[in-house]
């Protein structure tokens, strides 16, 4: 059987770091992942995926990621259920992060906050927007 999930998206709020009664760190966060197509109004929709990180990775997530951070998550899908206070059964599906990648430098979104508009084809901002100088790239630097 295969249970593998790979996501790239932005955190919708700051991660929530807690500790189990045994002192094990657990961090929960929600990742907004853009869909590859637009709706009938031409707007790009997103899916909001609950993610969970454990142990040292949980502490790292809480320390370095915040709302709006771009992150890559490699993990597995897991379901769990519990009984709510009103007596009904609640089912939860979440991604258990086995590997997490920070995909932008710390503070990158605060420096260019006015340029954080989505651009066609995905991504955010223009990395060369602050410079009017020509970009010097040799043929040897191109991957094709």
From TrEMBL:
GO terms for molecular function: single-stranded DNA binding. It comes from the Bacteria. Residues 129-144 have a biased composition (Acidic residues). It comes from Caldibacillus debilis GB1. NCBIfam families: ssb (TIGR00621). The keyword Nucleus does not apply. Residues 106-144 are annotated as: Disordered. GO terms for cellular component: nucleoid. GO terms for biological process: DNA recombination; DNA replication. This is Single-stranded DNA-binding protein. PROSITE patterns: SSB. Keywords: DNA recombination, DNA-binding. Homotetramer. The keyword DNA-binding applies. The lineage of its organism: Bacteria, Bacillati, Bacillota, Bacilli, Bacillales. PANTHER family: SINGLE-STRANDED DNA-BINDING PROTEIN.
